[in-house]
């Protein structure tokens, strides 16, 4: 992983492959952002004019390279756009800094060291820049032979030195340590999402979780197919029935002796989703290795909470299965008896995520946590509603839904609160079972949320994050977001745990 350091060195004297500075769009043209004063002075105060001559305008994500001025030990200056210049007496938002750092880190792939001279007003700014750099430097090359060719391959940026940081300041050091832990675990979640399904089945995912739990002092319990059968987990077993790879339910428990609250996170972990007997058509199944992104997010959040030693108990539930068609697969029309005892008529085997989540939600509810949050790439309907970069939030408590939304926006994860209209529940009535796994087509994402709500314990605060849009980026990279697995919802879950530990929630 990219190394992080805080430095008080002068920009001119630091040995690095590049110096990263920020530029912004001002009312009268490009403006050099704070942090780059030494570089601008070396250009006799004309750096903005030079950059404008090269076509720079300061737009978000824009990158301009130019030779460093005489006397600098770094050979290159890389100017990255921060977007609009803040109003007088205001500062750049954390997300603008995070995205700029990500763009710079990705642009500098192959470099050994870069000095980041971006605007730093306080320790929090240093933290978001570090976070953006770590996330932007990410690459997934495990399956590329070309990546093993040291001459031609471009390894991720090896080291980031944050100029303007305070190496001896406890707040700054804490922010850098937080960024390192969060960045490493979020990037591990991305690795899991990007891993081909022939190498990441439920058993393999469970093994990764077990190894991480052992490393970070997290208690782990893995229910295999025998334990699931004995326990009556009909939803998880029903989804996994058609696959040669048996399902798993993994419980990760991080506890703190100082904790006053308990959060439960539940993640959908379909390691490959063919749709089952309700087979997905060509063009809709090529990226379905990403259908375990919710479980990856939960896994990363629990491990990050443990690494940060947060004063809150966090339990993660990974509902892992592979949804495949075969002679033993669940059929449309079958009825499953769930862990909660309720029966579900399966009308569509491609609505499988809600089935594994239902069992995990019911099991998590037995411990009566203060709140449950489930995370899932659940419905295409949510993508149609909110697009590819925004996830939907549903909840049985409006105040909690608002809190989760505010936290998501704070950490830079676009989200939107969605309703749970009671009138849509009737569409899931079944003449055969207690409930069907499908309802009205219109509002399908809300129908899925209503289905999940049926399996949450009475009186327990619950939220559902449908990350179907932002979990896997099929387009080009942007900001600190790579192509492929993104690690969506990890930062929201971690900040929720931090807020809960601090007593800011409930």
TrEMBL record:
Binds 2 manganese ions per subunit. Pfam families: Peptidase_M17, Peptidase_M17_N. Residues 348-355 form the Cytosol aminopeptidase domain. Presumably involved in the processing and regular turnover of intracellular proteins. Catalyzes the removal of unsubstituted N-terminal amino acids from various peptides. It is found in: Cytoplasm. Its cofactor is Mn(2+). It comes from Streptomyces kunmingensis. InterPro entries: Leucine_aapep/pepB, Macro_dom-like, Peptidase_M17_C, Peptidase_M17_leu_NH2_pept, Peptidase_M17_N. Mn(2+) 2 binds at residues 268, 273, 291, 352. Its EC number is 3.4.11.1, 3.4.11.10. This is Probable cytosol aminopeptidase. Belongs to the peptidase M17 family. It comes from the Bacteria. Coiled coil: none annotated. Keywords: Aminopeptidase, Cytoplasm, Hydrolase, Manganese, Metal-binding, Protease. The active site is at 280, 354. One of its GO terms (molecular function) is aminopeptidase activity. Its main location: cytoplasm. It catalyses: Release of an N-terminal amino acid, preferentially leucine, but not glutamic or aspartic acids; Release of an N-terminal amino acid, Xaa-|-Yaa-, in which Xaa is preferably Leu, but may be other amino acids including Pro although not Arg or Lys, and Yaa may be Pro. Amino acid amides and methyl esters are also readily hydrolyzed, but rates on arylamides are exceedingly low. Mn(2+) 1 binds at residues 273, 350, 352.
């Amino acid at each position: 992983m990219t190394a992080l350091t805080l430095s008080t060195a002068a920009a001119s004297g630091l040995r690095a492959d590049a110096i990263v500075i920020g530029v912004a769009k001002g009312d009268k043209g490009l403006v050099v952002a704070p942090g780059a004063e030494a570089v601008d002075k070396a250009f006799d105060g004309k750096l903005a004019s030079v950059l404008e001559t090269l076509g720079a305008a300061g737009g978000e994500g824009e990158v301009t390279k130019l030779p460093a001025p005489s006397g600098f030990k770094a050979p290159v200056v890389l100017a990255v756009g921060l977007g609009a210049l803040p109003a007088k007496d205001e500062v750049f938002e954390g997300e603008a800094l995070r995205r700029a750092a990500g763009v710079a880190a990705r642009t500098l792939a192959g470099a050994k060291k870069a000095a980041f001279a971006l605007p730093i007003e306080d320790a929090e700014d240093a933290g978001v820049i570090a976070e953006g750099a770590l996330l932007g430097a990410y690459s997934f090359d495990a399956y590329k032979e070309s990546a093993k060719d040291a001459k031609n391959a471009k390894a991720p940026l090896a080291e980031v030195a944050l100029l303007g940081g305070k190496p001896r300041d406890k707040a700054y050091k804490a922010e850098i340590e937080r960024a390192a832990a969060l960045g490493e675990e979020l990037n591990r979640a991305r690795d899991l999402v990007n891993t081909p399904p022939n190498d990441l089945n439920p058993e393999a995912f469970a093994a990764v979780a077990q190894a991480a739990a052992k490393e970070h002092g997290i208690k782990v319990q893995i229910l295999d197919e025998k334990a699931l059968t004995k326990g009556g987990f009909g939803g998880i077993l029903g989804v996994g029935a058609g696959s040669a790879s048996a399902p798993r339910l993994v419980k990760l428990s991080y506890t703190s002796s100082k904790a006053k609250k308990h959060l439960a996170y539940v993640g959908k972990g379909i390691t490959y989703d063919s749709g089952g007997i309700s087979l997905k058509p060509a063009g809709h199944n090529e990226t379905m290795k990403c259908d375990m992104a919710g479980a990856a997010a939960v896994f990363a959040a629990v491990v990050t909470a443990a690494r940060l030693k947060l004063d809150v108990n966090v339990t993660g539930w990974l509902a892992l299965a592979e949804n495949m068609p075969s002679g033993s697969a669940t059929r449309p029309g079958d009825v499953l008896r769930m862990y909660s005892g309720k029966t579900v008529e399966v009308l569509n085997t491609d609505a499988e995520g809600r089935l594994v989540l239902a069992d995990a939600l019911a099991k998590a509810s037995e411990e009566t946590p203060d709140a449950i949050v489930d995370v899932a790439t659940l419905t295409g309907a949510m993508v149609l509603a909110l697009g590819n970069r925004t996830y939907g939030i549903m909840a049985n408590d409006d105040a909690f839904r608002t809190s989760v939304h505010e936290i998501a926006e704070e950490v830079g994860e676009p989200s939107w609160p969605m309703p749970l209209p009671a009138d849509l529940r009737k569409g899931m009535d079944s003449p055969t079972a207690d409930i069907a796994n499908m309802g009205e087509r219109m509002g399908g994402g809300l129908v899925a949320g209503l289905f999940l709500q049926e399996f949450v314990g009475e009186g327990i605060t619950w939220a559902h994050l449908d990350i179907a849009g932002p979990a896997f980026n099929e387009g080009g990279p942007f900001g600190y977001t790579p192509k492929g697995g993104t690690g969506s919802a990890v930062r929201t879950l971690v900040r929720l745990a931090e807020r809960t530990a601090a007593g800011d929630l409930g």
